[in-house]
Design a protein that fits this description.
- The chain is built from ten helices and 15 strands.
- About 3% of the residues have low confidence.
- Helix 2 runs parallel beside helix 3, helix 5 packs antiparallel against helix 6 and helix 6 crosses helix 10.
- The chain has a six-stranded mixed beta sheet with strand order 1-3-2-4-7-8, with helices on both faces.
- The protein is α/β, with parallel strands linked by helices.
- Helices cover 46% and strands 21% of the residues.
- The protein is elongated and about 90 Å long.
- The N and C termini lie far apart (66 Å).
């Protein structure tokens, strides 16, 4: 059966009431009929099974679901669980005869937008709850749409950008090693610049992808025991030494006597790389950059110190936020995600990360890894 209250200018809202008590149906109908600002169309079913079928037909704008059904051990919570499990997102409002915080929390956890206690409902509360629940549902839908767009961006970055960028790098390497014929000095300089730009682009893409995965909780650490000093040595003697040579900078290692570290080596390497790369980028030519490791009680401390321009005090609180700018004066190519991503990684390791800096005197970026050695 269905009722329709006095017409209004706004679009009618179709409501499905799943309620086994006819008196409660009539009360809901009368309350809706008192609301003059909105046209409501109310449909009523009185069993769990028919309610389930009607919900899955998706022909209503909002659903009022009773908590208990006569002659049925299943509850409104079971109905919520079943319909949300089949992909229906509501909006749903749970109705119950008694105020029960536990039921309220369970309803919210299962996808209900709100919870109303029979006997405490008047037309204003019912109207407001319906409108707020629909607005909340629309907001969630917009967020989910935005998340889908992020997924599309992620797929584009992975396939349409990362693949050709890596392919381009392999070709440039072949050209640089003169596998396709000799190069003039001018051509060598041009190809070196292209390789540098390609490397920056690849790191930007990698930072965006990894940052996205951390935000989505899709990064899973793979900790193992490894020699941190050995990893730093290999890192500095490889690509970073070439970056330092470009500005005639010197990378100095001051590595203490450390035990094996239990962490994700690839992610910790990413943090150290970000720290050193930033130091190289923002420090002047002929500068000395010191990479230090030492025991800090039961923990391990890693720091990268430079003699660059330093960082203004007002920028320090936001430095590890995404897209934070170190200084307009020292603007460089990048995504602004390196330090943010570094913090996500250290936080995931339950460590600490920070920076000490004075304008004109350089900066020292550091992180601490706590002792997380597996027991047994």
């Amino acid at each position: 059966m269905a009722i329709q209250n006095r017409p209004a200018q706004t679009k009618p809202i179709r409501i499905l009431l799943i309620e086994d008590d006819e008196d409660d149906y009539m009360l809901t109908r009368d309350l809706l009929d008192e609301i003059k600002s909105q046209q409501y169309i109310l449909d009523w079913v009185n069993t769990y099974e028919v309610g389930l079928k009607q919900i899955l037909e998706r022909s209503h704008d909002i659903y009022l679901i009773d908590y208990r059904f006569a002659n049925d051990v299943r509850t409104g919570l079971d109905l919520l669980k079943e319909v949300t499990g089949q992909g229906h997102e509501g909006p749903f409002i749970l109705l119950t005869g008694l105020e029960d915080r536990d039921i309220d929390l369970k309803a919210m956890a299962m996808g209900a937008a709100d919870y109303l206690v029979k006997g405490q409902i008047d037309e204003r509360l019912l109207d407001r709850t319906i409108r707020y629940s629909m607005a909340h549902h629309s907001m969630l839908q917009a967020i989910r749409h935005s998340e889908k767009r992020k997924e599309m961006v992620l797929a584009t970055l992975t396939h349409d950008l990362r693949t050709p960028v890596r392919a381009e790098f392999r070709v440039l390497e072949q050209l640089r090693t003169q596998n396709y014929g000799p190069l003039t000095p001018e051509q060598e300089i041009i190809i070196d610049e292209l390789i540098k730009s390609n490397r920056i682009m690849n790191q930007m893409i990698d930072n965006i992808l990894t940052s996205f995965k951390f935000e989505e909780g899709r990064i899973e650490l793979h900790p193992e025991e490894f020699d941190l000093n050995e990893m730093i040595t290999r890192l500095i003697q490889g690509e970073l030494s070439l970056l330092a040579e470009e500005k005639k900078q010197k990378l100095v290692m001051n590595l203490g006597d450390l035990p094996k570290v239990y962490a994700d080596p690839l992610e910790i390497r990413r943090v150290i790389y970000n720290f050193i790369q930033n130091a190289l980028k923002f420090s002047p030519s002929n500068d000395e950059i010191v990479i230090e490791t030492r025991k800090d009680g039961e923990n391990i401390r890693v720091s990268v110190r430079d003699n660059g321009p330093g960082i203004e005090e007002e920028k320090l609180p936001t430095l590890f936020q995404p897209y934070a700018s170190l200084s307009k004066k020292f603007k460089q190519i990048g995504t602004g995600l390196g330090l943010y991503l570094s913090q996500q990684i250290i936080d995931a390791h339950e460590g600490e990360i920070g920076v000490d800096s004075t304008p004109g005197e350089g900066s020292c970026f550091w992180f601490i890894l706590k002792d997380r050695t597996p027991q047994g």
